[in-house]
Amino acid sequence: MKNRRPQRGSTLVEFVLVLPIGVALLVGACSLGVACLRSLEAGQLARDVLLLADSGLDFGSPGGKQQVIEHGKSLGLSAGKAAIHLTRIVREPGGYRIDQSYGLGDTVRWPSQLRDPANAADLKPGESAWIAEVFGESGTITSLVPDTVKARSVL
Closest Cα to residue 35, out of 124, 140, 154, 141? Predict the structure, then answer.
């Protein structure tokens, strides 16, 4: 019979060496999963707000703002953990112009990235489109995943 005493020590050493790597992989996978979930929430919020805009909701009124905040509750819009920029662009014979623009949430931390409306939507003269940009915290605990999720939708 072989002596099993040296194996017990080597098993413990192997466990101590593998444990930090396993924990790091588990935390990284959880962070990536949370970031993906937040990204899906941001995309869904952008689509929901565009449907509200298409239905004629006035985002300048307190009731309109409240509806957007209610839709963005899961992303933390009312708590300053997210921002939404809603812009209506119109194409005229001379080019594109911004017709209406609204911002809710922490718009200082996350300003609109809509620089050139012509690149946002391909419209014919006389047509208009709503563009929703949603930014939010990714909720990750590792620096490997970006701390901001972004989504843009055009309707």
Answer: 140
